[in-house]
Amino acid sequence: MILKVKSTNKNTGEEISYELEGNADAGFLYEGTHMQEVADNKIREANNNLILLGSPIYTIKAGESETIENMTFVIEIKAE
Predict the structure, then answer these.
(1) Which end of the chain is more exposed for a tag (fewer CB within 10 A), N or C?
(2) In sequence order, which ranges of the chain are alpha helices (DSSP H)?
(3) pTM listed for this prediction
(4) Which strands, in side-by-side order, build the sheet including 2-9?
C-alpha cells in the first residue's frame, strides 16, 4: 500500500508532502529506508507522530483518508 502524507507545521506553516510504501505488519518505507531511519529531520519528525499507538497507518485501508493533529503538526494521510 502507498500512503500519501502531507504534514503541515502549525507554528511555521511549512508543508511537506511525501509517500510511504509498505503495510502495517511489515512497516513502511520512505524511498527504501525505514520510516524511523529517514535522514531528513522534517520527514522523520512527522513519521515519529505516525508510528504512535492508535495511529491510522495501522488500520487505514486503500481509498481512505485520515488526519492526525497534535500540538505541532496536522498530518493528512491518504491510502492508495
Answers:
(1) C
(2) 41-50
(3) 0.91
(4) 33-34, 27-30, 15-23, 2-9, 73-79, 65-69
The predicted structure's pLDDT at residue 53: 81
Q: Based on the number of CB atoms within 10 Å of its own CB, is 5 exposed (0-12), middle (13-18) or buried (19 or more)?
A: buried
Asked if residues 7 and 19 have their Cβ atoms less than 8 Å apart, the reply is no
28 is written with which cell numbers?
A: 513502511
Distances in Å between the Cα of 33 and the Cα atoms of 8, 19, 45 are: 22, 12, 15
Summarised one tens digit per residue, pLDDT across range 3-61 is 999 999 999 999 999 999 999 889 999 999 999 999 999 999 999 999 998 899 999 99
- Exposure string over 61-79, b if 16+ CB within 10 A, otherwise e: eeeeeeebeeeebebbbbb
In this prediction, residue 54 carries a pLDDT of 86
